[in-house]
Amino acid sequence: MELLGTFLAAVAFGIIVVLVVSTIQVLLGDTCIYGKPMRTTLLCYIFFMLLLALLASVQQIAFVIRRVLVLPGAATTSSASPPQLHQTFALPFCIWGADAFLIWRCTLLYKGISRVWTVLLFLLLFIVSICSLGTGILFFFSERFISTRLYNLPTILAVSSSGLVNITLRTVIIGRIVYHQQYIRKAMGVHYASIYTKIISMCVESCLMTSFCGAVFLGLYFSNDHRRELASVVPLTLFPHTCVITPLLLIYRAAKGRSITDLAISGPITASTIARSDEDAKEGMEFSNHVSIGSTGMLSSFTSSLPSTDVDRYAHENAEKGQRL
Fold first, then answer.
1. With CB atoms counted within 10 Å of each terminal CB, which end of the chain scores lower, N or C?
2. CB–CB of 208/166 below 8 Å?
3. Keywords of this protein's UniProt record, alphabetized (predicted)?
């Protein structure tokens, strides 16, 4: 099972490499919607996650070599203890990297909310961060649990908490996106809110990837079947790589977000134009520092439904959002 898990992990690492190369090409291309500071930040994050995936792969291969070939000097406890216990120590860092990315997105999405909601949001993010950090740190003390019945507790807690944190943060993100979707739908019509549905789908897809892998591991491990328990090492071996793939996939798809200049509309820039820029900024997953408005047209049905003061206020609010993205 270790060989199968390592082989699949190698395939996953190959996917990561292809994804990293594609994402870098998009970020460095002329059509990227991000500003230079954001590109630099994302590139650093991408290389950091790539190194973690590489470290996880190397450690997994080294462990299989020691376990299968039984090299001279290899510890016999390696073959006596459960395979989950020898999961690469890069696992907590991969989980932290994925969770930190989601927390960052939450802070971007919820800028401009009231002080009370800001306090509640940061309280939630603080609890989530402590949960992620705590279980990750506990993972490094796995060796101390070998002689007890809780020998696999650190790994189980790390995977379980990662799934809960992932679902919690993405629910918070989706909730904010749904709020914007309803706002745009009322102001501009159903057609202009469709982009939010695509963003929600992206969030759900990436959430399912990590959560499914963790759920399969936990399901096999607690199946009360020795063979299935041994098979649980396969999804566990893939887990660090899924933690790397999901944020990179979001960055790649967001970096390819449509520019507002792609709209086949002509005319002056109005409040509805800025509202449209808000849509495309959200398609950029709230990462962009700059959105080029370009030449787009007036949607008279929207502007005529609002007094001039409301139009100005809406334009001002969305202009501020564009500066934060």
1. N
2. no
3. Membrane, Transmembrane, Transmembrane helix
